[in-house]
Amino acid sequence: MLVIAHRGFSSQYTENTIIAFQQALMLDVDAIELDIHQVEHEFLVFHDPYVDKLTNGKGRIFDMPLKEARQLLVNDKYTIPTLGEVAALIGNKVILNIEVKSLRSVKEFVIYVKQFVTAYQCKVVISSFDHPLLMAIKTSFSDFTEAQRPLEDAYPAEFAGLIAHAPFDHAKYASNLGVLIAATDWNTVNADFVEDAHRRGKKVWCYTVNHQATLIELLDIGVDGIFTDRPDWARQFITDRVSIAQGSIRTF
């Protein structure tokens, strides 16, 4: 099971900040997840549409001038990083999962991702709850990878369709979207969903897993990856459980 640090090591450090990502990289994680909004021609790493809750500013982040947004302080301490800054930090160490919250230009986003993938050899997963937007990104991204086949082979991008409900037809939506990953709320996933996804050749990632009972259930039904605010705990628990299982097998 993949351990994905949700907004970095966010249980111990302020979410979506450079320090949260630095600390996550010091753990045994497989991926780091973050959220982006487009502000002018830049892409800022921030979750909420409104900055009021976490910063010293007010209003919607994507309505702000870039200069103003870059001067905001998260929890009176941290500046909001750009996607490029985080990509440079992560490089090819782990998967970089970009959840797209808002975009003004799909083309600008795809060119931006192309540039840092080339520069830093990042392994990228692009996800969104906005499925029409995700498909527009996927189509545009495919256009440039087809034109540069060696780049695609070396640094592929995958796509994840986020949902927050239990579809009647399970993971069919991921097949319809043509994405590899069905990413869903842990509270709505079940064994039938996972089985259906795997039968379709899809992976199942679940958010946001911070409790032992939930993690045990997801391990038992074969979920492929979890987003967690507690990546240190999750990795240790999964490792210990595998060790116990292997020890049990050896006794027979």
Mind explaining what this structure looks like?
By secondary structure, the chain is α/β, with parallel strands linked by helices. The protein has 10 helices and 11 strands. The strands form 2 sheets. It has an 8-stranded parallel beta barrel, surrounded by 5 helices. Strand 2 and strand 3 form a beta hairpin. Helix 1 runs parallel beside helix 3. It is globular and about 55 Å long. About 3% of the residues have low confidence.
Structural class: alpha/beta
Lateral strand order in the biggest sheet? 1-2-6-7-8-9-10-11
Cα(first) to Cα(last) distance is 25 Å
Radius of gyration: 18 Å
The strand count comes to 11
Determine the fraction of residues in helical runs and give it as a percent range: 40-55%
Number of alpha- plus pi-helical segments? 10
Largest sheet: 8 strands, parallel, barrel
Uncertain ranges: 149-155
Q: What would you call the shape?
A: globular
What share of the residues does DSSP label as strand, in percent?
15-25%
Order of helices and strands: EHEEHEEHEHEHHEHEHEHEH
Give the averaged pLDDT, no decimals.
Answer: 93
Task: Give a topology summary.
Blueprint: E1 2-6, H1 18-25, E2 31-39, E3 42-45, H2 66-71, E4 73-74, E5 78-79, H3 83-90, E6 95-102, H4 106-120, E7 123-128, H5 131-147, H6 149-154, E8 157-163, H7 172-177, E9 181-185, H8 191-199, E10 203-207, H9 212-221, E11 225-228, H10 231-250
Parallel strand pairs: 1-2, 1-11, 2-6, 6-7, 7-8, 8-9, 9-10, 10-11
Antiparallel strand pairs: 2-3, 4-5
Helix pairs in contact: 1-3, 3-4, 4-5
